Amino acid sequence: MIDKSSPIPVYYQLKEAIKLKIAEGVWKVGQCIDSERELSETYGVSRMTIRQALGELVQEGILVREKGKGTFVCEPKVKQKDMMSFSEIIQRTGMKLNTEVLEFETIDTPEEMQDIFLFEHLYKINRMRIVEGERVANEIVYIPCDYCGYIDKELLKGSLYKLLEDFGYTISHSESSIQALIMDEYYKNLFSVRENVPLIKTYSKNMNTDNKVIFIEEAVYRSDKYILEVNILRREGKIK
Predict the structure, then answer these.
(1) Nearest Cα to 192, choosing from 126, 136, 153, 132?
(2) pLDDT(187) > 90
(3) Which region, left, alpha or beta, applies to residue 61 given φ > 0 means left and ψ of -120 to 50 means alpha?
(4) Number of folded domains that form the chain
(5) Closest among 93, 100, 122 to 109, alpha carbons compared
(6) What is the pTM of this model?
(7) Which residue of 7, 33, 35, 214 shows the fewest CB atoms closer than 10 Å?
(8) Which of helix, strand or coil describes residue 28?
């Protein structure tokens, strides 16, 4: 119940209570939760407090409002906010991650990458990231063979960031482009879905603190399962 004498804001306590009910399965994915009036009576708080708590849960992607119907529990999504590996993101959510290595081979450095990598050969790594049994992301990584010691498919089932750290490379930042992608038969088969689902594609150059590009990644995500938050800071200075 809500402790109104606590220094913790009432709306925050209510948020946590609702999240707990969802975690315990009292309200399941796709199910309509209690109305504002019912929540107000259950927890003994004002409708304004209820709206504040629900509003924040909607912003966080935990709930969704449907006009004239009510407030429903959303399906959990993978949410990336900071610079971290996909493995780290899933680990923080507590969800189960499996990685299927679809392709692992040595290739001649493509012409379009020869200005980035001054090496003759690259590893091409194609991985499918499976979260709670669903195919959420397909990642194709290109990395110079010279940057890695011995690697095999089994090692590639874990975090690539962690693997590179073991070889002395720490990724500090990336330059990325993001675009929408239309679902076609190839992607339906790749993600094992029958219906059209929204996709986003990213292309990123991942670098260390010396601005050396360590690897290039081309990734496709199901945007109904994955949220990418981009934080943009305005540089200080006068407007000319």
Answers:
(1) 136
(2) yes
(3) left
(4) 2
(5) 122
(6) 0.65
(7) 7
(8) coil
Q: Which two tokens stand for residue 163?
A: 């693997």
Question: Please, which pLDDT band fits residue 237 given cuts at 50, 70 and 90?
Answer: low
Structural domain including 133 reads: 78-228
Task: Determine the Cα angle at 226 with ends 141 and 177, to 5°.
Answer: 50
- List the one residue out of 125, 87, 85 whose CA is nearest residue 104: 125
Q: Do the domain assignments include residue 180?
A: yes
Contact call for residues 81 and 67 (beta carbons, < 8 A) = no
What is the secondary structure of 101-125 as a DSSP string? EEEEEEEEPPGGGTTT--SSEEEEE
CB atoms inside a 10 Å sphere around CB 200? 17
Residue 84: what are its φ and ψ, rounded to 5°? -160, 160
pLDDT per residue over 6-32, tens digit each? 889 999 999 999 988 988 889 988 899
Per the CB < 8 A criterion, the answer to whether 143 and 123 are in contact is: yes
CB 174 within 8 A of CB 207: yes
Q: Is the pLDDT of residue 125 over 60?
A: yes
With a CB cutoff of 8 Å and minimum separation 6, the contacts of 15 are 53, 56, 57
**Residue of 134, 135, 144, 196 lying closest to 169 (CA atoms):** 144
The whole-angstrom separation of Cα 95 and Cα 131 is: 7
Whether residue 161 sits in one domain with residue 108: yes
Residues 59 and 45 in one domain: yes
